[in-house]
Design a protein that fits this description.
Helix Hairpins, single chain, elongated, 18 strands, alpha+beta, Beta-Lactamase
Length: 562
């Protein structure tokens, strides 16, 4: 088919152009036009290739998603000669959300533009992995027109291509409303050339974001761990050490980077380098070493060192991780446990010996008089009660440790509870020659607790107040705070608690030296169980004390109304 025609209209009689002379002219013009068209096409392709290359380079030279999307709004739109451009990213559920940064101003104040899986032309393209050219969108049944209705924009035509990375569809790229003429296969090929680079750029930026997020997560875990952590290269040079390790070493420097680990980690009876070598050669195991770690001041602390090698895919070790667990607290608990068992043996032996002695005296007939028999039996009964209380307390602790005491709760009337509990406590105080006062605010709201647990809490606190007060007053008060929280205070004018003992007061098995020296009976379990019980119901317990002047325990519990 000829590309065109030359027409001679109303030639003059003397015209040199005739039908015979016009034909060779047309042939020459045709050749010229063909060559000009080819030159135009070549120039156009060169320009488009240069533009696509420039766009591809720009897109793949950054790892910032905002920068990538910004590149699309100008250059690509002009290259394709379209009114709008849009990018939709696919989530794990297959839904597509469009990036408003790429779109025009009219879309910026709209809510997020999302399409369900398979919805609209974009959804169809993503599901079927096929590009489409549509020059009349409203005539296409797949077109989703709600975005036009909300924005006031009119989508007349579009090209939509899938953005693919390997075998995954990560989204779609749409060129909307060709400014002149209709979309062609040439436009499609041009958009696909840009889309390939765009998909790679988006994927690289996402991977970079994931790596940065994972790096920050690991750094946060690393720095916030209570255990000391050290990482080294395969040849033992430090690559990272967290604050916990610096604190454990009592290091004055803020960084151990690029130092030799064997010079930093010095052990009392073994060589760290030997343990590190064992870790490097471990296969599927995580070696451990219990040792004493030398601090910068020359002191040693007991630690448990665990190590693990980090391997490349080729099996080569490029890093080794060491974890240093401070054993001082564990050793202290073990010491307290040993002291506890020694104390228990002593506490049990005393009432048992007393019971056994008076029982033998009775059996041997050493108490013939009724008064003496009653006194002996009274001693046996009192020591049996003491023994029973100790055994009950140890059983309660065992159940609490084994979590057999379930955190059940029910409304408990505080006024009725104290009316039942405090009279017996008042009698104990009076028998000891103490003044017992109670100031319970009337009509207090209920608290949601287990009644037995509530009894354990306040019986322990009041009995302790009486036990450690040689003379003076013991007072129990209860009122309601402004935030509708129940506040109960147990005050005494007893021997008080040394300031240095307060941080350890609620630890298991802990007893103050003053109590031990004065021979005041106890197991070191009561306050530990009280604190555990209070906190199990979202409550708090605090203590204020001055040695020689007395102590105040304050318990706060949420009420049923709160």
């Amino acid at each position: 088919t000829p590309p065109g025609a030359i027409c001679l209209i109303d030639p003059t009689p003397n015209s040199i152009l005739t039908e015979q002379t016009l034909e060779p002219l047309a042939s020459n013009v045709t050749v010229f036009l063909d060559r000009a068209y080819l030159r135009h096409q070549t120039d156009r392709q060169d320009v488009e290739f240069a533009v696509v290359s420039d766009i591809s380079y720009t897109l793949t030279s950054t790892l910032s998603l905002p920068t990538i999307f910004k590149q699309l709004t100008g250059t690509v739109r002009r290259t394709l000669n379209v009114e709008e451009l849009s990018v939709g990213l696919r989530d794990p559920n297959g839904d597509i959300e469009f990036v408003k940064m790429v779109m025009g101003n009219r879309f910026q104040d709209m809510p997020p533009i999302r399409l369900k899986q398979g919805q609209g032309i974009a959804g169809w393209v993503a599901e079927n992995r096929q590009p489409v050219i549509i020059n009349d969108t409203y005539a296409d049944d797949r077109f989703y027109s709600n975005v036009d209705k909300l924005s006031g924009f009119q989508t007349k035509s579009m090209i939509c291509i899938p953005l693919q990375v390997e075998d995954r569809i990560i989204g779609v790229l749409q060129a909307i409303n060709k400014q002149t003429g209709k979309f062609t296969q040439h436009d499609l090929r041009l958009l696909q050339a840009i889309g390939g680079s765009l998909a790679a750029a988006i994927e690289n930026a996402r991977l970079h974001q994931d790596v940065i997020a994972e790096k920050r997560r690991i750094e946060t875990i690393f720095s916030s761990m209570s255990e000391g952590m050290l990482t080294t290269t395969a040849d033992g040079m430090v690559t990272h050490a967290n604050d916990a390790l610096l604190s454990l070493l009592q290091s004055r420097t803020t960084s151990l980077l690029n130092q030799n680990a064997k010079e930093i980690i010095q052990l009392k009876k073994s060589e760290f380098s030997e343990f590190a070598q064992k870790v490097r050669h471990a296969k599927g195991e995580f070696p451990q070493l219990a040792a004493d770690l030398r601090q910068t001041d020359g002191n040693y602390v007991p630690v448990l060192i665990s190590g693990a090698p980090v391997q490349h895919q080729d099996g080569q070790i490029n890093e080794v991780i060491f974890v240093f667990s401070d054993l001082r607290q564990i050793r202290e608990v073990e010491r307290m446990r040993d002291d506890f068992f020694h104390g228990i043996v002593h506490e049990l032996r005393t009432p048992l010996a007393t019971i056994l002695m008076y029982a033998r005296l009775l059996r041997e007939g050493k108490a013939q008089q009724k008064e003496k028999q009653d006194r002996f039996l009274g001693v046996i009964e009192r020591e049996s009660d003491r023994l029973q209380q100790m055994v009950r307390q140890m059983l309660q602790l065992a159940k609490q440790e084994a979590r057999e005491l379930q955190r059940s709760s029910e409304p408990v009337g505080i006024n009725a509870f104290f009316e039942e509990l405090l009279p017996a406590m008042a009698d104990q105080a009076t028998e000891k020659g103490l003044i017992f006062r109670q100031r319970i605010q009337p009509n207090l709201p209920d608290v949601m607790v287990n009644p037995d647990t509530l009894h354990l809490i306040f019986k322990n606190l009041v009995e302790n107040a009486i036990k450690f007060t040689l003379s003076g007053t013991v007072q129990v008060s209860a009122d309601l705070k402004n935030d509708n929280t129940l506040r109960v205070q147990v005050r005494d004018e007893g021997i008080g608690i040394p300031k240095h003992a307060l941080p350890n007061l609620f630890q298991r098995f802990y007893r103050t030296q003053v109590a031990v020296e004065r021979g005041i009976a106890g197991t070191g379990l009561g306050l530990y169980m009280v604190k555990q019980s209070v906190e199990s119901y979202a409550g708090t317990i605090t203590v204020a004390s001055e040695e020689g002047r007395g102590t105040t325990f304050t318990v706060c519990l949420p009420t049923a109304e709160r």
